[in-house]
């Protein structure tokens, strides 16, 4: 198997050196070059034809977002964004993921945390090399209220990872203001989830916010699992469905975990729910979706052709957890159809 050829783009010589050294420790990766700004990077891309680019957001001459937009328009290729863990960094990273970046990783806050961060980077870079990259063409305008839409009381649970920002925006932008109560677990750093919830809220007719303990699961409410130290679960309390944030170890390699969310939905709602598994690396969500299906819930998976990484949906499909696989553009309407009294 040939090595993954990587171009490292960062205005900091120290950070270029750290990233390069970390990537070179993996025998499956070859760092073919580095660049200190987008102008150097443009020439390096032409000369070296890398498989993956790691790209800093804040750089001289042209910021990373502007450069990324040009890459995705003129020569789409896998890009992993390297961002600071700040609110501004989170906003910029979400824009990058919308523009077509495959993944993001936070710069280490200090040298003590750098080994863990850079170990994660090698995994993400190799995953990016296997991803499907296509130019972004979608405009996420809030959907008008679907005429005559009437929810049937079902709960919707959606899990996603790599490529999930764009996928969730496409799906949630179709939801009307009276959509089914919906819970989302997307793998992303803790600093990013509040900003992403706000971005989804702007794209959607319903109300989207970061989940909090005890949040009521009513029609028109969509909750995104906070990144970091807790899992998002659905529980029945006093006859009403609510969100619960529970501390615990990572499950299926993640916290929050899609498996934890789906299994809690299977227990709390049984057949009165719909599970959806979207693009992502790994297997998180497969066992949980199977539990939902065994409890009588409907289940959908994103198809291979429209996934950035066909990992999580593949694992769920091969396990028998997915009833139907659909292309991403069809999933929003399919979810509403399954959760409507009119379908």
Specify the CATH architecture of the largest domain.
3-Layer(aba) Sandwich
Helix segment count?
A: 11
Major sheet: 7 strands, parallel
Q: Tell me the distance between the termini.
A: 48 Å
Blueprint (SSEs and pairs):
Layout: E1 4-9, H1 13-24, E2 29-35, H2 38-48, E3 52-56, H3 64-74, E4 79-83, H4 87-99, E5 103-106, H5 111-129, E6 155-160, H6 164-172, E7 182-186, H7 190-202, E8 207-210, E9 221-224, E10 230-237, E11 240-247, H8 258-269, E12 273-277, H9 286-294, E13 298-302, H10 312-318, E14 324-326, H11 328-338
Parallel strand pairs: 1-2, 1-3, 3-4, 4-5, 6-7, 6-12, 7-9, 8-9, 12-13, 13-14
Antiparallel strand pairs: 10-11
Helix pairs in contact: 1-5, 3-4, 4-7, 6-11, 8-9, 9-10
GO molecular function: phosphorelay response regulator activity; protein-glutamate methylesterase activity; protein-glutamine glutaminase activity
Keywords: Chemotaxis, Cytoplasm, Hydrolase, Phosphoprotein
Domain CheB-type methylesterase: 149-336
């Amino acid at each position: 198997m040939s090595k993954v050829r990587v171009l490292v783009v960062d205005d900091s010589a120290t950070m270029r050196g750290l990233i390069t050294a970390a990537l070179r420790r993996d025998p499956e990766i070859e760092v073919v070059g580095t660049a200190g700004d987008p102008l150097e990077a443009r020439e390096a891309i032409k000369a070296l034809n890398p498989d993956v680019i790691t790209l800093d957001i804040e750089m001289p001459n042209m910021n990373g977002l502007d450069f990324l937009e040009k890459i995705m328009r003129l020569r789409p290729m896998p890009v992993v964004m390297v961002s600071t863990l700040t609110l501004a960094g989170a906003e910029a990273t979400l824009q990058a993921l919308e523009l077509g970046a495959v993944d993001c990783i936070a710069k280490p806050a200090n040298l003590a945390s750098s080994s863990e961060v850079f170990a994660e980077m090698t995994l993400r870079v190799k995953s990016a090399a296997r991803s499907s990259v296509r130019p972004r063409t979608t405009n996420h305008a809030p959907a008008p209220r679907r005429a005559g839409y009437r929810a049937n009381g079902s709960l919707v649970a959606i899990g996603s990872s790599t490529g999930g920002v764009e996928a969730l925006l496409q799906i949630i932008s179709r939801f009307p203001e009276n959509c089914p109560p919906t819970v989302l677990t997307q793998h992303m750093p803790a600093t990013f989830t509040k900003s992403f919830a706000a971005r989804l809220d702007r794209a959607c007719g319903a109300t989207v916010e970061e989940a909090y303990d005890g949040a009521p699961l009513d029609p028109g409410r969509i909750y995104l699992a906070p990144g970091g130290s807790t899992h998002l679960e659905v529980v029945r309390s006093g006859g009403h469905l609510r969100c619960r944030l529970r501390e615990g170890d990572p499950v299926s390699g993640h916290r929050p975990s899609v498996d934890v969310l789906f299994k809690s939905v299977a227990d709390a709602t049984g057949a009165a729910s719909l599970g959806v598994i979207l693009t992502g690396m790994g297997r998180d969500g497969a066992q949980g979706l199977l539990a939902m299906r065994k409890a009588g819930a409907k289940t959908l998976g994103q198809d291979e052709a429209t996934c950035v990484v066909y990992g999580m949906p593949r694992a769920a499909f091969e396990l028998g957890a997915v009833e139907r696989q659909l292309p991403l553009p069809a999933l929003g309407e399919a979810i509403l159809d399954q959760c409507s009294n009119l379908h």
